[in-house]
Amino acid sequence: MVAKSLVTGPRNARESNRVEFEGGSVASKLLASTLSATLKPAIHLWALAPGLPWPYGVVDHIGRVLRSVPGTTRRSATLRNCSAETTRPATTRTDRYVVYMHGGAFLVGGRYLHRQLISRIAAALSSEVVAVDYRMLPNHTIADGVEDCVDAYRFALAKGIPPEQIAFMGDSAGAYLVFMAAVVAREQGLPMPGAIVSMAPVIDFDLHAKLDAPSAATDALFTKGFARTMHRLVLDHCPMPHTRRQIVDEDLSGLPPSLIQVSSTELLYPDAERLAVELAKAGVPHQLQVWLDQVHVFQAAASIVPEAARALTEVTEFVESAFAAHEAVARSVG
Fold first, then answer.
1. Which among 85, 147, 250, 266 is annotated as catalytic?
2. Looking at residue 151, what is its pLDDT?
3. Is residue 57 one of the residues assigned to a domain?
4. Residue range of the domain that includes 165
5. What is the pLDDT of residue 65?
6. Which residue numbers delimit the Alpha/beta hydrolase fold-3 domain (predicted)?
């Protein structure tokens, strides 16, 4: 059984709505040790020679072996500058929607790698989900990817879904995109979505806080060398500040209720904590959920890891609560 543990609510004036969850299940430990022995060395090898012709597109096809929730159907969609894919569960409500922005270090991912996770989210919320195959490094800038995610939001709005019943969700690099897409959408005059879910977010491209934290030495996937290589890659391919905007530099006021989930032992743990601080400063309703001793984006292992299954339940409950609150406000106004 996974249980909430120790810390609920603010610990000081700069950190609000923090909840810690226990970890340590046998399945989570086995997953961490397996990834540390297999995928981590491969990622480190890439970090040593990122200029080689790595088959970034091939990584996406790993997702083909992962089983989706039975009854899931998919359809291709076309956005202005990229493709997308819609996922529908067996039972689908027509009054809500999810825009999913995948992770992958702004380099990999797309149609297949996140299919299983997306199918679970779709089934839990009885909602169609559009997953954005946004433009990525090294051929495009991060700003290009943000623009594609805003286009996916326009795609959802065009279906007639009220904005307050649309949720943005993303993991890792995609967890950066959910916030930047909301900020850019507001700049373009679009209404805010009803909720944001951010799993293991990147919030800036500065390395010091990440590498100085104890979690940099305990991540089951990423090394400090990987972080340094990614930093150089971003600077090389997004040389101008407007092509790599940082969440911590943006005006976050007026954003919708936001959920942040992160592992206590991953490289991006400091980013999640800092994001919660910035949201608190901006007056954004939010919750920071810290899951002890999990791998990066552990939610993708919901079929085998109990903490991951519980995390997705928390995601569902958060979004349902946000949608219900918006509906209550709409009824009172009407």
1. 266
2. 98
3. no
4. 4-51+65-333
5. 64
6. 98-299
**Residue 296 designated active-site:** yes
- Give yes or no for a contact between 291 and 311, defined as CB atoms under 8 angstroms apart: yes
- Chain-centroid distance, C-alpha 26: 25
Q: Residue 15 has what pLDDT? A: 47
Q: What is the pTM of this model?
A: 0.92
Do the domain assignments include residue 118?
yes
CB proximity list for 205: less than 8 A, separation 6 or greater: 231, 234, 235, 244, 246
Low-confidence spans in the chain with pLDDT less than 70: 1-16, 55-65, 334
Here the CATH number for the domain that contains residue 121 is: 3.40.50.1820
Share of the chain above pLDDT 70, in %: 91
* Angle of helix 39-48 versus helix 26-37 axis, rounded to 10: 40
Rounded distance, CA 152 to CA 18, Å? 30
150: helix, coil or strand?
Answer: helix
Ramachandran angles phi, psi of 204, nearest 5°: -155, 175
Number of folded domains in the chain? 1
Catalytic residue among 28, 119, 172, 198: 172
Q: What is the pLDDT of residue 63?
A: 64
263 is catalytic: no
Catalytic residue among 102, 140, 286, 296: 296
How far is CA 147 from each of CA 75, 209, 300, rounded to the nearest angstrom?
22, 28, 25
| Three-state secondary-structure class, residue 223 | coil
In a domain, 59, yes or no: no
Peptide bond into 138 cis (omega under 30): yes
Asked about 264 being catalytic, the answer comes back as no
pLDDT value for 66? 72
| The pLDDT value given to residue 113 | 75
